[in-house]
Amino acid sequence: MSLKSIIYDQVTNNLEILDQLLLPGITKYVKVKGVEDGWKVINKMQVRGAPAIAIVGCLSLAVEMRNDKFESKKQLRQEVEGKLNYLVSSRPTAVNMKGAAEELIDLANQLSKDKSVSLEDMIHKFLLKIQHLLEKDITDNQSIGDNGAKEILSRVSGDSQVRVVTHCNTGSLATAGYGTALGVIRSLHAMKRLEHVYCTETRPYNQGARLTAFELIHDKIPSTLICDSMVSALMKSRNISAVVVGADRVAANGDTANKIGTYQIAVVAKYHAVPFYVAAPFTSIDAKVSTGEHIVIEERPDREMTHVGEHRIAAKGIPCWNPAFDVTPASLIAGIITERGVFKPEQIKAVLASVSA
Ligand SMILES: CSC[C@H]1O[C@H](OP(=O)(O)O)[C@H](O)[C@@H]1O
Known about the structure:
Elements: E1 6-9, E2 14-18, E3 29-31, H1 35-43, H2 50-67, H3 73-88, H4 96-113, H5 119-153, E4 162-166, H6 181-190, E5 194-200, H7 207-218, E6 223-226, H8 231-237, E7 242-245, E8 249-251, E9 256-259, H9 262-271, E10 276-279, E11 285-286, H10 303-306, E12 307-308, E13 311-312, E14 325-328, E15 335-338, E16 341-343, H11 348-356
Parallel strand pairs: 4-5, 4-7, 5-6, 7-10, 8-11, 10-15
Antiparallel strand pairs: 1-2, 2-3, 8-9, 9-14, 12-13, 15-16
Bound molecules: the ligand CSC[C@H]1O[C@H](OP(=O)(O)O)[C@H](O)[C@@H]1O.
């Protein structure tokens, strides 16, 4: 059983998120009573991870809708559109919230125009769609895990085991459950083909040291925590089979925005001839962005670099640069692991076209 970052009970209309700022020391769930709470817990990174951001954002809207009264379908559509666009503003780089918002706004427009649909029906169908998004993320994660495990194993002979590097947190704490890159690692472990996983600390928020390590210990997966600066020395001294990381936004040409530090891992992997994989659901691919240079990179507060909790670790007054993500060019990516299969970056455009056809 993986950890639950999101607890949602549609009968009691209760939504709670595991406050990831307090992990691994304190396990505390925070109530999300509506869209304003949803925006805050996402923006503060109490909940983070591209798929989890979309799920919590949409569920916070569902909770609010169940408590609201609407005069008309038009009013419902207008309110839904405004609140979803507000939720998209909570964090700019991950595309999943934007994609979910577009899908839900399209649905609201269709239902609003359809004279055969009553206001009550519209609310019911809309809430059902949000529930579906949550359930789909869980099934997609399992498919991503299995597809990625098979791909990595296809590169090794016989029934040998593999040694994998991962960055940031892409597990149950970043999704609705199981994980994307960490889902691949879970599948390799379940297949008894994972010799060891090396997870990076992932400065400055320490998603690796605080969250991925927490998940790996919880699942009893053989693992070692390394500093971000150790990846090249590790690849020089160990026979690493593959790198697998998550994604916040994949451009149509396969360029991928992911946690800061991902790009340099990809460069080191290229130098050491270690295949570098991105694992992400199709909801992380943005067909409207042609290349990685058009992806907005969020910059976070200096304090996330100068302090760990309340403890200052950098000289007072030193200016900081704190981009939360970087972009790995498609040329450094061996494959993009999705729930539909594993694709080379240059295949993404054609796959998008076939999916939307
Ligand atoms: C499956 S999570 C994808 C992605 O999100 C994380 O960023 P953050 O912790 O800032 O939300 C990280 O980049 C993961 O790879």
